[in-house]
Design goal:
Elements: H1 3-23, H2 28-35, H3 39-46, H4 54-64, H5 68-72
Helix pairs in contact: 2-3, 2-4
Length: about 100
């Protein structure tokens, strides 16, 4: 990872955390209570005024129920889980024959 990539990751964290909080309809106070991170620190992180530690990010992602790795990815984070019906699921045939 280059310095540019690291800056890009750090630059995405505030917006992604805020989006996750708002998507769940949580206030700053609620996130603070759920995560153990102070309300003022959550606010500073969302505004990009503070760089959180890994431990702080871990607590926030757990409280917001978001994927820690997805939060740090350079691409767009996945928007959720895709549900498929049993009839749509791919099947494996051959059971390892011909390997």
């Amino acid at each position: 990872m280059t310095d540019h990539d690291a800056e890009a990751v750090l630059g995405r964290i505030p917006g992604r955390l805020k989006e996750a909080r708002q998507a769940r309809g949580l206030s700053l106070d609620a996130v603070a209570k759920l995560s153990g991170v102070s309300r003022s620190m959550v606010s500073q992180i969302e505004r990009g005024e503070s760089n959180p530690t890994v431990a702080t990010l871990w607590n926030l992602t757990r409280a917001l129920q978001v994927d820690f790795a997805g939060l740090l990815e350079l691409g767009q984070p996945e928007r959720g889980i895709e549900v498929i019906r049993a009839a749509q699921a791919p099947t494996i045939t051959g059971h390892g024959q011909g390997c």
